[in-house]
Amino acid sequence: MEDFDVFTNKIHITKPIYKNILNKFAKDIPATPFGPNYQSARKLLAEQCLMDGDEAGCAFHFSESVFATLRTMAIYRDEQIKLANDNLRKITSYIKPVQEIIEANPKTDDQLIDNLIKINDIDVTGVLDSIKTDDELPFHQRYLKFSSENNIDNFRRILKELPKEWTVIQLTAPYNPNENLKQMDEFRTEVDSIYLSVFTNDYLDDSNLGPFTINIPANRHKEGERPLFTELYSLLDENYKTIENAQFLNNKRLVQDYWAKREDIDLRMKSVINVMDKEWLGGWGSLLTGKLIDTKWKEKIKSTVQNTVSDWGLMGLNEKQMILLYNLMESCPVLSSQQLKSCIRKILTEHGNTERFRQALTCCESCSKDFNLLNELCLKCLSKCFEAVHHFTLVDAIRAFSQLAIQIKDCNEWATLKKAKRHPVILIVDEALDTFPWESTAALREHPASRMENVHFLYHLYKLHEGRVAAGHYVASGGAGRYVINPEKNLDRMEKRMKSFVEYWCESWRGCTGCAPTPEQFIEYLNEADIFLYCGHGDGCRCAGGGSVVEGGGARSVCVLAGCGSVRLCRTQPRRPPRAAHLHLHVAGSPMVVGMLWEVTDLEVDKVVTTMMSLYVPSRQALPWSAVGKTKWSQGIIDVSPPGCPARPPHEPQLLRALGAARASTNFIMIASSVVARGLPVKNYQ
Question: Quick one: DSSP state of residue 277?
């Protein structure tokens, strides 16, 4: 049987054998496994743990199930760099363990020679491999590897070591056996649910529960409507074709058609985000929010929910249910009444004590006591079980928390909660879900959020830059800047706009304009600069000679890549790992990469990027960038002496907040939602 046959739905095996196969596959993996197969096994193990009620095991296996190949890339690149700097490394890596064996078992030279003669080459290699040590590697590098150190205890240890300000959430698509059987364009739309794993959270950190996971139905659609995945990929294809054909517009009618298509695509993206908010996430969007900076709100929410539980006599709710209710009530100002009631019902029923519900279950025709998860039961059975377990009707319980939500939404003493500032959210997003604009949903729209590939790389980058991390932010400077603008010499108006901006606002920066840097210059920029700005086609890595050159050259700068699809995951074939510029830059050590998820138009992106940079990067200019006259900006001419002098907008030292504010500088949702940040939250100390 081929190894991937285990991961199809074409064979039927008993549950014990199935679990043994999964555990054996996960345990007996090679040092550098094939990423997609490893991810498949981990997803299946996570789903099994969720059915068994093992929340910590479920979260751990899901954490292992994303971007496994990136870990292999980092391990390989680190080894290649060490070999390049030390030609004897392969030999010396074996000398230490062999020397220890000789010293522990003293023998004459003749005895040693006799022993070596008796052992063939293969056995000698096997013995040396078995005793080879990596004791020189720090833990954050060892955890990148695929070894016994990747376990639940170390996973929990990592979560405790991460900055307490961060909320770390993972969004994972379920395992789909059709990855082995269908073309990528077919199976990528077959996502019927999302697993939302909460690794760290304001209320979770105070409990003994540990990381947990909930399953959210997704891709549901009304009759006559397209499934959301199908609609998203369709509008992105249309967006690409529209922008690609813009160069052929040679009369007024074609220009009008172009703008009509752009407006239609924009409306469709707005609809996608609306469905994500209302139909997918609903009240579960409350779990995506960051920790409140003002801790008094947290204590007030906890006491209010606890008072409601005791006042209504709703005893017997478990710790997970209480944490979910805390988060829901905290986010209720931005949720509709229907979203709140639906989520309250699911919290009270689908996340109750499984065994107590099983004992209380009186099966109807469609339900069985052999269920794995409570969401497999019908609403009627769930209501009866809830009443039997809690001696309280489900309708009254929903009413109790709905009234509390109305009180929080309408009462004056809670009025400022909606706008209260929050600490950053780190979103770990599965490859299958990465195209969606999560940052544009209601839960994250007003708050700082950054994406990361997996817990392993989040921890790795954090430890790599730990000396410069304070209060949950990588502390950077905006003083030393480098830029590459229009290296392919075919975006003249963009070149004039961005050149005029950097010469006005970032006058001390230097770089290349209208010409391509040499690979050596490009790598030099990445290592010299605090901020590196690229404006051109794509991500710019080809200027360095490719992603592998970037990995080997290193990067210390915060990178802003203002090109079409500059941080898009490119996955051309099924079962093939994705490629992307930010993956190479993170391997190289860059703390943060800002870029675009899909094709964009240069003028609107220039507005967003310059607004973000003007908020984040300090400047000596008296006139704020927002007040600069831009009537002739595309000709490289800006007016720095308009009538009146408006108040200068406050400097925003946090890059994620500056990015959030900059999204409002364009009227196109397709542009605003395309710009995302990947990496550690960054703060400018100037």
Answer: I
Distances (CA, A) of 26 to 34, 38, 45: 12, 7, 9
Tokens of 383: 């209501």
For 172, list phi and psi in degrees, rounded to 5: -125, 135
Q: What are phi and psi of 235, to 5 degrees?
A: -70, -30
What residues contact 434, with CB distance under 8 A and at least 6 apart? 451, 569, 597
2 pLDDT higher than 50: no
Residue owning tokens 């950054």: 450
How many whole angstroms separate alpha carbon 591 and alpha carbon 281? 29
- Claim: this prediction has a pTM higher than 0.85: yes
**What does the block give as tokens for 553?**
């050259």
Residue 435 has pLDDT above 60, yes or no: yes
Specify the higher pLDDT residue, 109 or 658: 658
**Alpha helices (runs of H) in 86-151, residue ranges in sequence order:** 89-104, 109-118, 121-131, 139-142
pLDDT tens by residue, 332-354: 999 999 999 999 999 999 998 88
- Out of 32-36, 280-284, 386-390, 665-669, least confident range: 32-36
Query: Contacts from 639-648 at CB under 8 Å and sequence distance 24+?
Result: 640/504, 648/622, 648/624
- Residue 69 CA to residue 39 CA, distance in Å, equals 9
Helices (H), 276-353: 295-312, 319-331, 337-350
pLDDT of residue 646: 60
Rounded to an integer, what is the distance from CA 513 to the centroid of its chain? Answer: 33
For the purposes of burial, counting CB atoms within 10 Å of the CB of 153, is it exposed (0-12), middle (13-18) or buried (19 or more)?
A: exposed
Q: What is the pLDDT of residues 179-232, one digit of tens each?
A: 777 777 778 888 889 999 999 999 998 888 999 999 999 877 777 778 888 999
Whole-number CA gyration radius for the chain:
28
How high is the mean pLDDT of the chain? 86
Q: What are phi and psi of 138, to 5 degrees?
A: -70, 165
- Give the helix/strand (H/E) hosting 474: strand 473-476
CA 671 to chain centre: 19
Considering only residues 113 and 308, tell me which one the structure prediction assigns the higher pLDDT: 308
Give the burial string for 249-279 (b: 16+ CB within 10 Å, else e).
eeeeeeeeebeebbeebbebbeebbebbbeb
Six-digit token pair at 365? 């025709």
Alpha carbon of 536 to those of 41, 467, 485, 506, 583: distances in Å? 40, 33, 6, 19, 19
Nearest-10 crossing angle of helices 89-104, 68-85:
90
How far apart are the C-alpha atoms of 85 and 446, rounded to whole Å? Answer: 46
Spatial CA neighbour of 69 closest among 26, 40, 24, 38: 38
Residue 281 contacts residue 169 (beta carbons within 8 Å): no
How far is the C-alpha of 363 from the C-alpha of 378, rounded, in Å? 10
Q: Which residues does 597 contact at the CB level (< 8 Å), separation at least 6?
A: 434, 435, 437, 565, 567, 568, 673, 674, 675, 676
Residue with tokens 């695509």: 265
